[in-house]
Amino acid sequence: MANTQKFRAHESLAVDTAGDWQVQSAATVGSSASAVRVDGYHNIHILTDNDLYFTFKTSSTDDLSTSNDFYLMGGNTIYTLRIPHGLGDEVHLQWQRKGSSDCTVRYVLA
Fold it and tell me: Mapping DSSP to helix (H, G, I), strand (E, B) and coil, where does residue 9 land?
């Protein structure tokens, strides 16, 4: 019989542990929203050189609001975002540059 449990008990409790560390290729984030599929992970660690808007959605279709969604400030800060698991089976991080210059984003899925 297949194991239908998506996460083990301690993972479901959102404890601060990660059994995985997947360094991704640096991404260029431009003037229109793009998406990265992040379901199956607990956190995403992000370092961006310019400000960018972000949101979590259940599809890669652009649904980012520059009026309402949060943004991360570019620079030398590494941000850690928890990936919400209550959205659905498929979770995408959507992002878009905030200023007039594209962002180079380095990120790790954990």
Answer: helix
Q: Are 48 and 105 in contact (CB under 8 A)?
A: yes
Smallest Cα–Cα separation from 19: which of 43, 45, 2? 43
CA geometry: angle 69, 31, 41, nearest 5 deg: 55
Coil vs helix vs strand at 90: coil
Would you give the DSSP letter of residue 83?
A: P
Phi/psi for 58 (5° steps) reads -95, 5
Q: Which class for 44: exposed (0-12), middle (13-18), buried (19 or more C-beta within 10 A)?
A: buried
The percent of residues in the chain predicted with pLDDT above 70, rounded, is 83
Give 76's DSSP letter: S
Claim: this prediction has a pTM higher than 0.85: no
C-alpha separations of 38 from 20, 90, 101 in Å = 12, 8, 25
